[in-house]
Amino acid sequence: MLSGNNIAIIGTGTMGRGLAERLSQSYNLFLYDHHYDKALSLEQKGFGKACPDLKTAIDNADIVILAIKPQSLKEAAPLIGSLLTEQTLISLLAGTTINTLKTYFPNTRIIRMMPNLAITKGEGLVGLTPDSKLSENEIMQLLSLSDPLGKVFWLSEEKINAFTALGGSGPAFVLVMIESMVEAGIAMGFNAKDSEQIVKQMVKGSLCLLENSDKHPGEIKWQISSPAGTTIAGLLALEDLNVRSGIINVFLACFERTNELSSD
Ligand SMILES: NC(=O)C1=CN([C@@H]2O[C@H](COP(=O)(O)OP(=O)(O)OC[C@H]3O[C@@H](n4cnc5c(N)ncnc54)[C@H](O)[C@@H]3O)[C@@H](O)[C@H]2O)C=CC1
Ligand SMILES: O=C(O)[C@@H]1CCC=N1
């Protein structure tokens, strides 16, 4: 059911556009947005065919990717449901459960996909939760679809809200931390451009250290911390300010909101 090279993307906002850019080299894309100009501007850049109506997009597709906001589902679902025949539906909707999707699309094969914005650069995360067991062939199809997007994680549905917080929303929190570090550089006398360059390379290097060793992050942190040196002074302030607890609570607030969306 997942076979075929024709994909409809419904909703060509941030994620729909990102998917179109990454998938257009390998698939025939049919793009639909209720703001037609958004789909058209993607067609003009060579990222697929803009469809003037939903029927054209879905009729042409083997797979339909739903990339509208969860809050738009109620309004959009009846028409989409009336047009689906044999297609598989891939839903990006944060928090929207398979059970909820099944109430709108009872006879449709459904896969929940939770990406993050870094898929637009091929360095994203892609969480996948199918509505039932997939065949070897279907797994291969989904892997080849996800391959241009980033690293795939197969998830049971009970884990997808946590994955949404950690992997889906996570880049926003990392970017706030980076922004704050750049501002620390400005506070210490660097201009913004220099500070940003220093911070970006420092963050990249930190990840590289972690990825190229089997050490725990805390052990690497100790390698950086000289006795009575500069790093331990900063680490003490970090603990006094409850930064770790703050970060954990940021993710838990995000998780809680995802759970709320699941119960809407
Ligand atoms: N932005 C992100 O980083 C991530 C978003 N998601 C999920 O992806 C989905 C899309 O999010 P974004 O792209 O950020 O939203 P967006 O607001 O940028 O894009 C949604 C698009 O859907 C269109 N749309 C709304 N109702 C429609 C309808 N009935 N028919 C056709 N088009 C319609 C809008 O015009 C808009 O272009 C959401 O469900 C979100 O939970 C998942 C992971 C990451
Ligand atoms: O903020 C949101 O609801 C979406 C889901 C994950 C990232 N953005």
From TrEMBL:
Known EC number: 1.5.1.2
Residue stretches making up the Pyrroline-5-carboxylate reductase dimerisation domain: 157-261
Reactions catalysed according to its record: L-proline + NADP(+) = (S)-1-pyrroline-5-carboxylate + NADPH + 2 H(+); L-proline + NAD(+) = (S)-1-pyrroline-5-carboxylate + NADH + 2 H(+)
Alphabetical UniProt keywords: Amino-acid biosynthesis, Cytoplasm, NADP, Oxidoreductase, Proline biosynthesis
Example of a GO MF term: pyrroline-5-carboxylate reductase activity
Top-rank taxon, per record: Bacteria
Domain Pyrroline-5-carboxylate reductase catalytic N-terminal, first and last residues per copy: 7-95
Pathway entry: Amino-acid biosynthesis; L-proline biosynthesis; L-proline from L-glutamate 5-semialdehyde: step 1/1
InterPro entries: 6-PGluconate_DH-like_C_sf, NAD(P)-bd_dom_sf, P5C_Rdtase_cat_N, P5CR-like_CS, P5CR_dimer, Pyrroline-COOH_reductase
EC class name: oxidoreductase
NCBIfam families assigned: proC
Family listed: Belongs to the pyrroline-5-carboxylate reductase family.
Primary role: Catalyzes the reduction of 1-pyrroline-5-carboxylate (PCA) to L-proline.
Protein name, as recorded: Pyrroline-5-carboxylate reductase
Gene that specifies this protein: proC
